[in-house]
Amino acid sequence: NAGVIQTPRHKVTGKGQEATLWCEPISGHSAVFWYRQTIVQGLEFLTYFRNQAPIDDSGMPKERFSAQMPNQSHSTLKIQSTQPQDSAVYLCASSPNERLFFGHGTKLSVL
Amino acid sequence: GDQVEQSPSALSLHEGTGSALRCNFTTTMRAVQWFRKNSRGSLINLFYLASGTKENGRLKSAFDSKERYSTLHIRDAQLEDSGTYFCAAENQGGSAKLIFGEGTKLTVSS
């Protein structure tokens, strides 16, 4: 069991570019979560899916951010027109029931 | 909004000693999880509690929904216990999203 796999580990983008972050949940886990971690805000919930359906996206910025789960083996978080304040570690987690298991995260740096 | 207040923010222990971390909640939470961020930056799930206490090795956690708090006790601390510990709680609203505390940086020294 490789755990939750996130790619890339690090991504550097220029301001205004698009960034796509990938997550492969643990096989058999029905829920996938996205969180963001910054020094200032700590760990913040973004969105989650259960059985590929979006359940709660209350933490997602209303503009520029979107998440999809086209199949049970991966989810993507897309940020359009990235801004410096989007710089953070983006964490994906999956869950078979209630416990969350996190990936290593993708460190996004927007220059 | 719902808040999770975690304390202390930093803790230093000598090997073999113990202490407790605490999270207070501003509202009634349905469940709590505790995580440790290891040296590689991964968040490791230590406990999930909907009530009562759980123990795993030198770690013990308790959750009291009515009194709005959870604790994580570490006994006989070892060097490899060093890291940042986070509590995270689910509110009663039905969503599975977690609200995280700010973390406790634990340093265990010899």
Overall shape of chain B: it is globular
Q: Please estimate the helix content of chain B.
A: under 10%
Architecture of chain B, CATH level 2? Sandwich
Largest interface: A-B, 25 and 22 residues
CATH superfamily of one domain in chain A: Immunoglobulins
Provide the β-strand percentage band of chain B.
over 45%
Mean pLDDT of chain B: 94
| Structural class label of chain A | mainly beta
Overview features:
heterodimer, A: about 110 residues, mainly beta, four-stranded antiparallel sheet, about 0% helix, B: about 110 residues, Immunoglobulin-like, six-stranded mixed sheet, five-stranded antiparallel sheet
Describe what you observe in this structure:
Chain A has strands spanning 5-7, 10-13, 19-24, 31-38, 42-50, 53-56, 65-71, 74-79, 88-95, 101-102, 106-110. In chain A, the strands form two sheets. In chain A, strands 2, 4, 5, 6, 9, 10 and 11 form a seven-stranded mixed sheet that branches. A four-stranded antiparallel sheet of chain A has the order 1-3-8-7, with no helix packed on it. Chain A has a domain at 18-94: Immunoglobulin-like. In chain A, strand 7 and strand 8 form a beta hairpin. Chain A is mainly β and 111 residues long. Chain A is globular and about 35 Å long. Chain B has 110 residues and is mostly beta strands. In chain B, 0% of the residues lie in helices and 60% in strands. Chain B has no helices and eleven strands. In chain B, strands 2, 4, 5, 9, 10 and 11 form a six-stranded mixed sheet that branches. In chain B, strands 1-3-8-7-6 form a five-stranded antiparallel sheet, with no helix packed on it. In chain B, a hairpin with a 5-residue loop joins strand 4 (29-37) and strand 5. The radius of gyration of chain B is 13 Å and the shape is globular. Classes of the chains: A mainly beta (111), B mainly beta (110). At the A-B interface, strand 4, strand 5, strand 9 and strand 10 of A face strand 4, strand 5, strand 9 and strand 10 of B.
